[in-house]
Write a structure and sequence with these properties.
Elements lengths: L1 H10 L13 H24 L5 E5 L5 E10 L2 E10 L23 E2 L3 E2 L5 H7 L6 H22 L8
Antiparallel strand pairs: 1-2, 2-3, 4-5
Length: 163
């Protein structure tokens, strides 16, 4: 059921066309517009489905992103700051999302709080370059990671709800 909901959400996202990264000034401006359009569409779709779970913003160049994400578990909202940089080889290389406050609290995380997406998400990203963008990263990377890791961290008593 959850997989079907994710498939439906991703199917509603626009695919990106511009294969440009931050080093390509003109191409990057076009790619960034596509990224924002897809992110806005994803957030609007989530709000309509009563599934609003993150906020993102970027620096002026669109190379550094930061915001908040949250996950509701047993009717309690767990909120975390997120951040990532756009790799210079983007879109060939997917960004690595970091949740600094969870650094070292789960095996599915690298140093600096970067979440592990290598087994499931990165091969999918590689097959869909340049069509996937940041909205896809959130829908197919961070969202499923939170759905697996947050309930486990709560059950183990590693994280507690902040009142």
């Amino acid at each position: 059921m959850a997989d079907e909901a994710v498939r439906r959400a991703v199917a509603e996202l626009p695919l990106l066309r511009t294969a440009a990264g931050p080093r390509d000034r003109e191409g990057w401006a076009s790619r960034l517009k596509e990224e924002y359009r897809a992110l806005i569409q994803y957030v609007e779709n989530n709000k309509r489905a009563d599934n609003d779970w993150f906020r993102l913003e970027s620096n002026a160049e669109g190379t550094r992103w930061f915001g908040k994400c949250w996950y509701v578990h047993e009717l309690l909202k767990y909120e975390f700051a997120i951040e990532f940089d756009i790799p210079v080889t983007y879109p060939s290389t997917a960004p690595e999302i970091a949740i600094p406050e969870l650094d070292g609290k789960t095996a599915k995380m690298y140093r600096g709080g970067k979440i592990c997406l290598s087994d499931h998400f990165k091969p999918l990203w590689a097959r869909n370059v340049p069509k996937f963008g940041l909205a896809h990263l959130m829908a197919l990377g961070l969202g499923p990671w939170l759905a697996v890791e947050i309930p486990d961290l709560v059950a183990k008593g590693i994280i507690q709800h902040k009142k």
